[in-house]
Design brief:
There is one protein chain. β4, α10 and β5 form a beta-alpha-beta unit. The chain is globular. By secondary structure, it is of the alpha/beta class. It is 45% helix and 16% strand. The strands form 4 sheets. The chain has a 4-stranded mixed β-sheet with strand order 1-4-5-13, with helices on both faces. A 4-stranded antiparallel β-sheet has the order 6-9-11-7, with helices on both faces. Strands 10-8-12 form a 3-stranded antiparallel β-sheet. The structure holds uracil and calcium ion. The site of calcium ion (CA) has 8 residues, from β6 and α11. It comes from Thorsellia kenyensis. This is thymidine phosphorylase. Homodimer. Keywords: Glycosyltransferase, Transferase.
């Protein structure tokens, strides 16, 4: 087999066979296929697309390029959740203890990642001492015992995806549905859960800005899941404005704790219940979404979800006192209000630019060696549809430096104030 023939075939719009896809993935992972030929094939896929079978084969070829996690020693149906990007998305912190409180095993892998705020790990580290350097045996033991644990990303999970994603990043081939869908699904499948709930974001702060593209991506991922034998479903949710109020690691930790107490922002609570209900259904712990939702609300009301969160943090070295006393979280030195420049209604909050504002404070990483400041970030005081008077605060900045004029400017530039508009829809569609 020659890679040039495979490139030519795809350039001409033909479907690749499983053997051809395997040849490409294996050769590229091992280094026998050079970057320039891999780039050419990616560009051909970008323009010619892949059919359903090719997408499933590409996903499995990437899964098989490295290690996979075997969770079979954990009792019960393991359900994973994945959100595609977003700004201030605190759902993982809420959902892990919430679902585990219903005895559904949550076996999560997490990394630091890049972005506006840290990854789930950074947020968890706001509970001083929390760590995920645990052995696989300890991980499995903890999930069996507590129903929830998080382990660091294995170094050799889907190496083909790591290499290809880096290449796509510099060859203009990131934004391709078959390539994004297979990239995300390969990592989820290698991580070993039996069932997957996908939270596909749509809007300015999302990977996919238009609803049509978001639906297409969600459908592509759900089909891949089904074709490789994993129960998979997707929810399309709004990310035109940030979710909840908090953007920043310790701030999001506090927001997650509030939500587990039933006192969180309405949109974060609702999305957590929607995604959580789907997880409960896939875990076969309820026979209808209504029943699943009721059970989730019950463990919030009776405090079991909160107790689970404490147990989870303490089991991995984290300070559980933050749950009862959020003042024990890392605190920023300065709190600065961002005044509205005029009166009216908030029409738009450009989510990705607000995320950049949080990053300017040090809440996130631009490169993987950057250090994150856990205490800093933003608390939104106004969201789309809210009335605001000139001079009233739009956002509170939590900073560890005094001069935040560039951050204030960025926030004011990205809050559109004018005639009334209703708050955007939170959940657009469910795809099964
Ligand atoms: N996230 C991924 O993991 N892969 C993509 O291709 C895009 C977003
Ligand atoms: Ca949030």
């Amino acid at each position: 087999m020659r890679i040039v023939d495979i490139i030519t075939k795809k350039v001409n719009g033909k479907a690749l066979s499983p053997a051809e896809i395997n040849f490409f993935i294996q050769g590229y992972t091992e280094g026998t296929i050079p970057d320039y030929q891999a780039s050419a094939l990616l560009m051909a896929i970008f323009f010619q697309d892949m059919n359903e079978d090719e997408r499933a084969h590409l996903t499995m070829a990437m899964v098989n390029s490295g290690e996979t996690i075997d969770l079979s020693a954990i009792e019960g149906i393991k359900v994973d959740k994945h959100s595609t990007g977003g700004v201030g998305d605190t759902t993982t912190l809420v959902l892990a203890p919430l679902v585990a409180a219903l005895d559904i095993p949550v076996a999560k892998m997490s990394g630091r990642g890049l972005g506006h705020t840290g990854g789930t790990l950074d947020k968890l580290e706001a509970a001083t001492g929390f760590h995920l350097e645990i052995s696989k045996e300890e991980f499995i033991h903890l999930v069996n015992q507590n129903k929830v644990a998080v382990i660091g990303q294995s170094g050799n999970l889907t190496p083909a995806d790591k290499k290809l994603y880096a290449l796509r990043d510099v060859t203009g081939t990131v934004n391709s549905i078959p390539l994004i869908a297979s990239s995300i699904m390969s990592k989820k499948i290698a991580a070993g859960s039996d069932a997957i709930v996908l939270d596909v974001k749509t809007g300015a702060g999302a990977f996919m800005k238009s609803l049509e593209d978001s639906i297409e991506l969600a459908e592509a991922m759900v089909k891949i899941g089904h074709n490789v034998g994993r129960h998979t479903m997707a929810v399309i949710s709004d990310m035109s404005q940030p979710l909840g109020y908090a953007i920043g690691n310790a701030l999001e930790m506090k927001e997650a704790i509030d939500t587990l107490k039933g006192e969180g922002p309405e949109d974060l609570m609702e999305l957590s219940l929607v995604l959580g209900s789907q997880m409960v259904m896939l875990a076969k712990k309820a026979t209808s979404l209504e029943e699943a939702r009721k059970k989730l609300i019950e463990v919030i009301k009776n405090g079991k979800a909160l107790e689970k969160f404490k147990l989870f943090l303490a089991s991995q070295g984290g300070d559980p006192s933050i749950v009862d006393n959020t003042d024990n979280l890392p605190q920023a030195k300065y709190k600065i209000e961002v005044p509205a420049l005029k009166s009216g209604f908030v029409r738009k909050i450009v989510a990705d630019e607000i995320g950049v504002a949080a990053m300017l404070l040090g809440a996130g990483r631009a490169t993987k060696d950057d250090k994150v400041d856990l205490a800093v970030g933003l608390m939104l005081r106004k969201k789309v549809g809210d009335e605001v008077k000139q001079g009233e605060s739009l956002v509170t900045i939590y900073a560890n430096r005094e001069d935040v004029s560039s951050v204030i400017q960025k926030i004011q530039d990205n809050y559109e104030i004018g005639e009334f508009v209703a708050a955007p829809k939170l959940i657009y569609q469910t795809i099964t």
